[in-house]
User: Fold this.
Amino acid sequence: MKRRRPLKPQFITDVRRREWPIQFGDTELRVALDLGEITSPRGSVPVCEAEIELISGDAARIYDVARRLHRSVSFTVEAQSRVARGYALAGNLLPSPQKAARVVLRRRMTVAEAFVEIGRSCLIQIRANEACASLGEDPEGVHQLRVGLRRMRAVFVALRHHLDDGKRQAINAELRWIARECGHARSWDVFIALARRFDGEPEFANLMKEAEAERISAYSRMRKVIASRRYTEIMLKLDAMWDGGGRTQLVDSARLRDLDEPIGHFARRTIKRLHKKLHKFGDGLGSHSPKDLHHLRIRAKRLRYVGEFFRSLFPPKLGSAYLTALERVQGRLGTLNDANCMCELIGQLDRRRGEAIGSEKTPIATVILDWSVAQLATERARLPRAWTKFEGERPFWK
Assistant:
């Protein structure tokens, strides 16, 4: 009989806990403060965290307490459990990018029930990519974080007629701020990835050095955003919406009963509305300016995300064909956007270089600009075919 080796701990969690009961109206909570460390043969990480546990009453009070604490003590919300952090430490595992899990809805769900599932899915994707994005080792991390933010904004687009307009716009403005701050890092990731094809050109090494400096600066700026009080505050608000029942506070009082509508009826109306808006905006595609194409891309993404939220309610084959054709249009528009981004960023580098040493455009800048212009022409020529294919797809929600 083969002798088994004795089990050994992969990591050890050593913490000291203090607890305080909190009575919040009819709700009983317990706040626990843990201080200590997680250790393994590979090293250690500190533990300094608070947990708020519902004993009885209204779960929404958890987030009320958390936000009150946050106004007094700056903190961030940890996305990983202590066990997950222990295994990551023991295995020397870096945070990895996480795509959104598929949303599965049941036809008997109400609008309110369905949007809890959808909102949680978006929030989980955002939280799951914070560490990877902040680390900056894998460009996909910041990309998936921004996808999560765009999906969350699409939730508010879908619900816009049910929500208090002022409150909806306030949350949307905060999400837009986070996406914009993360967008600088993403733009330089894309620039560096596309610029590598010009390795061997004169001044290539200098160009990449300048671009990498801009990327490092952009990531530093994004890390500060993710670690900021403002970021944590908006995440706590979203937590309260999707886990604590706070979503009803955003709903227009006149539309509160509409949240009890079956999700299937709501989904059909919403997808149809966004579909019609996209088609109307896409008329005269050949004469669209770069700004028009950018707005068309945003509308295409919005429709795709909402379609993906609701696709489990409809026949899978029709939904797959429609969303695949839409994704191809979005891909063409994305390539156009990348080419425009290359032009803008190479111009930014040239302006900074000119301000610093009074130099003119470098040869490699001219090469990249010429390539970008050619890409724009090629993709604009390919776009109508992808659009025509999309227009011919049967609406899957009927």
Remarks:
- The first strand starts at residue 12 and ends at 24.
- The chain has a mean pLDDT of 91.
- The CA atoms of residues 278 and 374 lie 27 Å apart.
- Residues 8-93 form one domain.
